[in-house]
Design goal:
69% of the residues lie in helices and 0% in strands. It is mainly α.
């Protein structure tokens, strides 16, 4: 893994790519050729593929989303209890149209994420990842009001 591909750097690229098409393409290019077996880096590669799908022509969208789904499967297979990997897959799958049939892991990923977030700081999430997970779960309405209140106290 190149030195510049740290968890913090990947998070920054992901956050920028989520809102900017040019940053999305750079993020995709950064990870396009990544083949090693680091589950977290593979999960970011899956996220980059999904972001590329967002910005692609209608003709290419489904292919990128399918590639992302395969990459996420590989990443989760390498490190199934890693909450950051599950967060990346959950954030992508929760934004896919249901008719694609590619959002199969929402319930299991949400359960793992909620458990990890409630266990913070003993959850495997660092402060930055915890903030992203908590914010996504609460702000997007993925948890009950009771769980949102519990998370807001952490």
């Amino acid at each position: 893994m190149p030195v510049e591909i740290t968890s913090a750097a990947l998070r920054r690229h992901y956050q920028q790519a989520a809102t900017d098409k040019e940053a999305g393409e750079k993020f995709y290019q950064l990870l396009a050729d990544y083949q090693a077996e680091n589950g977290l880096v593979l999960a970011y590669k899956g996220a980059a593929q999904a972001i590329r799908a967002r910005d692609a022509s209608m003709f290419n969208k489904l292919g990128y989303v399918q590639d992302a789904a395969k990459t996420f499967e590989q990443a989760v297979g390498l490190d199934p209890q890693n909450p950051e990997i599950r967060f990346l897959r959950f954030s992508v799958e929760s934004n896919l149209p249901p008719f694609l049939g590619l959002s199969k892991h929402l319930d299991e990923d949400k359960a793992l994420l909620l458990e990890a977030a409630l266990a913070y700081p003993n959850s495997g999430l660092d402060a930055e990842a915890f903030g992203a997970v908590r914010g996504f779960l609460v702000q997007r309405g993925h948890v009950s009001e009771a769980d949102a209140a519990r998370l807001s106290q952490l």
